[in-house]
Amino acid sequence: MSQAETTAAAASGPPEAVSPRTRLLLEGPVTPTLLRLAFPNFGEAAARVAFISFDAVFIGWIGTDALAGVSLVFPIFLLMQTMSASGLGAGTAASIGAALGAGRTREAAGIAAHAVMLALIVAAGAGAIMIGLGPEIFRALGAEGAALEAAVTYSAIVFGGIALVWLMNLTANAVRGMGIMTVPAGAIVAGEAVHLMLSPVLILGLGPFEPMGVVGAAIALLATYGVGALILLVYLFSGRGLFRLTAADFRPARRHFGAILKIGVLASLNTIQLQATFLGLTSLFALFGPAALAGFGAANRLELLQIPITFGVGSAVIAMIATNAGAGLQDRVRAIAWAGCGISALIGLVFAGVAILLPEGWMRLFSDEPAVVAAGAAYLRAMGPTLPVMGFAFGLFFALLGVGSAIWPFLAGALRLALALGVGALVAQRAGGGIDELSLAAAGAGLAFAAAMVLSGRRLLWSRAASAPA
């Protein structure tokens, strides 16, 4: 949209051909509307928290080797999770929201259908890579012996069915783009209920089931996403939302792929950088032995938990900002960005409290081995103070995606990756540092990312005063 078109749209107000749901996003008071949209997502976030936490707890009962092996796979799996939810998924939600804000309902349906096609295409490529190259990747990350065997087994099953993860997350974002959050949240909670029932049964062997270890963990994971994907696909084809998917919507159209990929490619690269940062740190902690590797893997899960909870706010921010940007309401866009950043920072403050005040307590959820607890607690103490600042930066990340700006968040992520791996490797391999020093290097890289994000979003936040009510 050109500046002249934006000005004209802002002067004339929201378009007439919009649904009551879309008009709420365009006219409702900013912070109450944002919280109303985000509230169902907190249930979804709780389900993701349960998934990340309890899966590790169950696997930790098997032993340190199993936990270490799965800890190597988990960042790569989370790469698929974040690429689909916050990468191409963000492109899906933002482009659908913009189309609906401008009153183009059939265009929004076409974008949703193309998101389904993209999910299958990308999942096929990712699965082929990980099944073929998984053993070499895990060896390169420092795995050996029983830990390597666990990693290879778990990865082969998870990535054999990774299409279920992509389908659930892209269809969830298609629905979120309508400004409807309860349906994707309900689908994800239902999937996690299945996960919590299946995981202990399959991993540990309860009732008539024999213990399946990491094989059972992988099967339970895929069942979680399969249930969610089925619910969301039925919803999109039923027409209960703002549009109904039809066969005609699946006729390939370059403009629909382009609408998603314009935002989604750089957003996905940003999530790749995030997971590459965690993978790189995983390999550096592995230099200090299996206990350090397991400790970092368990400690890092607290930091990773902040991301899905922040995404609960971020997905609402994307939907509101994209819809208002599509209608040309720029002052309102700015007010939504500030509200999203503030709420995300408060979420980070809660996680900081756990990391700073209860590091050993968090670690003992996963292991009683003193070396594992000590390694993880050292990382949590270093990262804890950065988490509120990181929360603000994540909120700004989602706001920028909502206005279709993904290049600066990508560059900020590149800075964090370079500093975490560069300084971390220098500390761990050349300067003779230990776990404490490596943890501080990781925390410093996170603060640099947050500073770069604020710099990149300065025009969105401060170029002129917002006039929308907050």
The residue ranges in which pLDDT falls below 50 over 5 or more consecutive positions are 1-13, 465-470
Roughly how many Å is the radius of gyration? 22 Å
Q: Counting H and I runs of at least 4 residues, what is the number of helices?
A: 18
In whole angstroms, how far apart are the ends?
26 Å
The residue-averaged pLDDT reads: 87
Largest β sheet strand count, sense and barrel closure: none
Could you spell the SSE succession in H and E letters? HHHHHHHHHHHHHHHHHH
Using the alpha-carbon principal axes, give the shape. Answer: globular
- Which percent bin holds the helix content? over 70%
- Total beta strands: 0
Strand content: under 5%
Structural class label: mainly alpha
Task: Walk me through the structure.
By secondary structure, the chain is mostly helical. It has helices spanning 3-12, 20-27, 30-62, 64-101, 105-140, 145-160, 163-176, 182-205, 214-238, 254-286, 290-326, 330-357, 359-363, 370-383, 387-402, 407-430, 435-456, 458-462. The radius of gyration is 22 Å and the shape is globular. The chain starts with a helix and ends in an 8-residue tail after the last helix.
